[in-house]
Specification:
Layout lengths: L1 E7 L6 H9 L3 H8 L4 H18 L11 E3 L5 E3 L6 E7 L2 E7 L3 E7 L5 H7 L2 H8 L4 H21 L12 E5 L4 E5 L7 E6 L5 E8 L6 E5 L3
Parallel strand pairs: 1-11
Antiparallel strand pairs: 1-5, 2-3, 4-5, 6-10, 7-8, 9-10
Helix pairs in contact: 2-3, 5-6
Length: about 220
């Protein structure tokens, strides 16, 4: 089972609540928040930490007591719990945390108009073909962000992040059969992609290793 938790971080504009929640997290997470300059960035980072702490409670753990280890490409993992995999992301007013029993990557993006040049520069030809097959610019923009979040989630599930060139793999959307495939040569594994539309004006994608029949759930959390 892969669970994805999400929260609106605007509640952390309340300074007292911000300080209260920050004190409950590990020094590692506290430092990540402290290094950020802007209040909204701090809120998003803290929100991601709050969600991870909430998610770990299912396993009888709390974020404050765990130790992290950092992979070769910078992806954090739980040092003494290799059976638990997680991924964090945030954008705009929301943070998300995906967690489960196999490698997972996620991404959330606020949909903004006027970003199609990103697709022209970074997307594979088949991704561009699907994007520009949409009837109007609004739908093209939505498709652009859908592909972007799926590409980000794939890069994160592999553990390689931005070290994996965006043109080295492609997202193939099969609308007729309602399936999404990742065409890649990273390894010999199959990757399954799941999209969510629970949050208006945001695209959310979760990529999981090796399973077609795994169950997913999207759960709101309040600070």
């Amino acid at each position: 089972m892969i669970y994805t938790y999400y929260m609106d971080v605007r509640c952390l504009d309340n300074e007292a609540l911000f300080r209260e929640k920050l004190a409950l997290l590990s020094p590692y997470r506290q430092q990540k928040v402290a290094l950020l300059k802007h209040e909204k960035d701090k809120n998003r980072s803290l929100g991601a930490g709050i969600l991870l702490d909430h998610a770990l409670k299912v396993y009888g753990l709390c974020e404050r007591s765990i130790e992290y280890e950092i992979g070769n490409w910078g992806k954090p993992a739980l040092k003494y719990h290799p059976e638990i995999h997680f991924s964090l992301s945030h954008s705009g007013d929301y943070a998300i945390c995906s967690i489960g029993d196999r490698p997972v990557g996620n991404d959330i993006e606020y949909v903004k108009q006027g970003r199609l040049k990103v697709a022209d520069r970074f997307f594979a030809k088949e991704e561009q073909d699907w994007l520009y097959a949409a009837a109007d610019e609004q739908e093209q923009t939505k498709r652009m962000f859908r592909i972007w979040t799926m590409k980000e989630s794939f890069m994160k599930v592999t553990g390689r992040g931005m070290s994996l060139p965006l043109m080295d793999f492609a997202i193939h959307v099969d609308e007729e059969n309602e399936r999404i495939r990742v065409r890649h040569k990273v390894d010999a594994r199959y990757y399954h992609m799941k999209e969510y539309d629970e949050i208006d004006c945001y695209c959310v994608s979760v990529c999981c290793q090796e399973s077609l029949d795994i169950a997913y759930d999207m759960i709101p959390v309040c600070a």
